[in-house]
Amino acid sequence: MPSNRFIRGRSIRARDGSIVLRFVLESRGVMEVADTSSGRKARVKRTRKRGGPGSLLIRLRPSSSGKKLLAEGDRVRTRIQMTFTPVGGTEASRTTRIALFRR
Q1: How far apart are CA 14 and CA 84, in angstroms?
Q2: Superfamily grouping for domain 6-101
Q3: What ranges do the domains of the chain cover?
Q4: Which of 28, 31, 29, 36 is nearest to 9 (CA)?
Q5: Could you say which DSSP state residue 44 is in?
Q6: CA–CA separation, 71 vs 81, rounded Å?
């Protein structure tokens, strides 16, 4: 059974308001990152990316409602869920808070 463990590393803020998340995966699979804000529109676009063992970078871009909020203020905070599904294994999920910044 392949391992479903993953580690989230440091985040990198980009100039266009997006954020790059770094992950370390123990096996091949699909990493999915989605906004889990309840009761309001999603502030970041859902992103999926395949990766093998080792490092994986995923760029999260603000959605249209997130871009409007960034235009009004300097930052937008939201809650995201990170789900890793290894090939032939069961998925593992974690939830965390992130902030998108306007530059």
Answers
A1: 24
A2: Immunoglobulins (2.60.40.10)
A3: 6-101
A4: 31
A5: B
A6: 24
CA angle 44, 22, 13 (to 5 degrees): 55
Q: From CA 99, how far away is CA 83, in angstroms rounded?
A: 19
Q: Record the tokens describing residue 25, joined without a space.
A: 């995966």
At residue 52, the pLDDT reads 87
Phi and psi, residue 99, nearest 5°: -135, 135
Which residue bears the tokens 């063992």? Answer: 53
- Alpha carbon 11 to chain centroid distance? 10
Query: Per residue in 29-38, pLDDT tens?
Result: 999 999 998 7
Give pLDDT tens digits for 35-75: 998 777 899 999 999 998 999 999 999 999 999 999 998 88
- Percentages (nearest 5) of helix, strand, coil residues in the chain: 10, 55, 35
Place of tokens 């789900």: 83
Q: For residue 63, with 0-12 CB atoms within 10 Å meaning exposed, 13-18 middle and 19 or more buried, which class applies? A: middle
Residue 36 identity: T
